[in-house]
Amino acid sequence: MDVIKTQQISARAIEKVIVHPLVLLSIVDNYNRVARDTRKRVIGVLLGTSFRGVVDVTNSYAGVEHLLRDVKDTTISTLATEVSGKLTALKGLEARLREIHGYLDLVVDGRLPLNHEILYHLQDVFNLLPNLNVNELVKAFAVKTNDMMLVIYLSSLIRSVIAMHNLINNKMLNKEHEKLADASSSPITAAAGS
Question: Which residue from 157, 160, 112 is spatially nearest to 3, judged by alpha carbons?
């Protein structure tokens, strides 16, 4: 799949854009559910391929502002909470592994007697560990990681679009205020000159 980059768009002329019906249906459906008869915005991302000047839009994420809930504020978001929870769990695991390592060192050195029940439980732990050398598992982890990175990328993209939208709204509002200020000050100036 060819990802369109800014350099590619400027260097290669886009001759045709194909938008699949499902994409249009998804966009219209989301607009009708979220923003119909309101001034609310609907933000989305179009996904597809570009090949020889033809852009083929095959999928969309319409109204993806809900994706921002997990990545909006990294200090208090669900994502940050999950990451800190996993970090705490990993630190706990490291402490337990160090404790096991210390016990086994003491047994090997002969300072502690061999406890078969502890060794039995350790053997159970190692037997229950997944085999991480299986290609399907490695591929599944890569797919899951890529999916998470896509959500983070889309969230960043959407935040940028929202910021640009707010900037444009602010600029338009400022122009309206300037026009009102100019209109209200011009009759006073004309009256003062007479």
Answer: 157
